[in-house]
Design a protein that fits this description.
40% of the residues lie in helices and 19% in strands. It is an alpha/beta fold and 347 residues long. Bound molecules: 3-isopropylmalic acid and magnesium ion. Magnesium ion binds next to helix 9.
């Protein structure tokens, strides 16, 4: 089984190093790794954020473990050369349309949540975010208006097939959990959202056991901090899912804790922490590697069909936290490597 390691920029390489240590310590038969440059690092070395070599490796691999991309040195580049194009390109090229972002509170971290512990302790949800469409991939550009003003535009759209396939993932995810699905949209204003809502309702006919509700995205943002325990599975579009998943991460303690899986229709997947490259703390040993380590666990569970190893990693993370391992984002002083040490010690 070939794992593509794509560390990327900023803290990406640091957190991937720790995830690799954990995977190595499991001594899984037949697991091999190959690494490639992506993001700003790849642009600086090759002139492109997603070089052909990295894309080919990702296609060949059985699963991909991704760090983060984003580099302020590249902010002035044309958009198609910016680091973010690496992750957007991989999601599109590999048809990784279903992004699963579980948010669960480790009981030890109740004090690190931005919410009161009794509210935070109720959180146990999965955000299912669509990844291949929406305003992210619509026509976009800069133009001049008739009266000579610069105007930027990005077109938002979803066709019904795109909505149906992610709605199915939402319903299936709910079936495997608490059988409650909340579809998040902005149907009071956007036509894209009206279609979204109509198609989700149609798809519900195949999943009568699931309780479906709909929520406008602004209300959802409020409910996530007011009463996050009400959510089991949320299904939403690319942009709303991007925003709500960052918010959910602070509800469970830190953005340094949330893993994610981006899957195609055959369970091939790319696994990455939901956080970015955090250039402000890169290279200082301050990054929390747990989101990436937990992403490696998701990889073992979803793409490599090795759930027992995934369980071991997740249990080791819980044990490390219980033993007091805390990086700065969690209010502690452990370095990135010490967080990795703590997980290894608990394996
Ligand atoms: C994420 C990130 C990406 C996104 C960026 C890096 C393009 O914020 O995975 O949530 O917006 O999807
Ligand atoms: Mg994001």
């Amino acid at each position: 089984m070939l794992i593509a390691l794509l560390p990327g920029d900023g803290i990406g390489p640091e957190v991937i190093t720790q995830a690799r240590r954990v995977l190595d310590a499991l001594h899984i038969d037949g697991l091999v790794f190959e690494e490639a440059l992506v993001g700003g690092a790849a642009y600086k070395a090759t002139g492109h954020p997603l070089p052909a070599e990295a894309l080919a490796l990702a296609k060949r691999a059985d699963a991909i473990l991704f760090g983060a991309v984003g580099d302020p040195d590249c902010d002035a580049l044309e958009r198609h050369l910016r680091p973010e194009q690496a992750i957007l390109g991989l999601r599109k090229e590999l048809s990784l349309f279903a992004n699963l972002r579980p948010a669960t509170l480790f009981p030890e971290l109740a004090d690190a949540s931005a919410l009161r512990p009794e509210v935070a302790s109720q959180i146990d949800m999965v955000i299912v975010r669509e990844l291949n469409g929406d305003v992210y991939f619509g026509e976009k550009g800069m133009r001049m208006t008739a009266n000579g003003k610069r105007e930027g535009y990005d077109i938002m759209s979803y066709d019904e097939d795109e909505v149906r396939r992610i709605a199915r993932v939402g319903f299936e995810t709910a079936m495997a959990r608490g059988k409650k699905l909340c579809s998040v949209d902005k149907a009071n204003v956007l036509e894209t959202s009206q279609l979204w809502r109509d198609v989700v309702i149609e798809t519900h006919a195949d999943y009568p056991e699931v309780t479906l509700m709909h929520m406008y995205v602004d209300n959802c943002a409020m409910q996530l901090v007011r009463n996050p325990g009400q959510f089991d599975v949320i299904v939403t579009g690319n942009l709303f899912g991007d925003i709500l998943s960052d918010q959910a991460s602070m509800c469970v303690g830190s953005i340094g804790m949330l893993p994610s899986a981006s899957l195609d229709s055959d369970q091939k997947g790319l696994y990455e922490p939901i956080h970015g490259s955090a250039p402000d703390i890169a290279g200082q040993g301050k990054a929390n590697p747990l989101a990436t380590i937990l992403s490696a666990a998701m990889m073992l569970r979803y793409s490599l069909n090795l759930p027992e190893y995934a369980d071991r990693i997740e249990a080791a993370v819980a044990k490390a936290l219980a033993a007091g391992a805390r990086s700065p984002d969690l209010g502690g002083t452990c370095t990135t490597a010490e967080m990795g040490d703590a997980v290894l010690a608990a394996l």
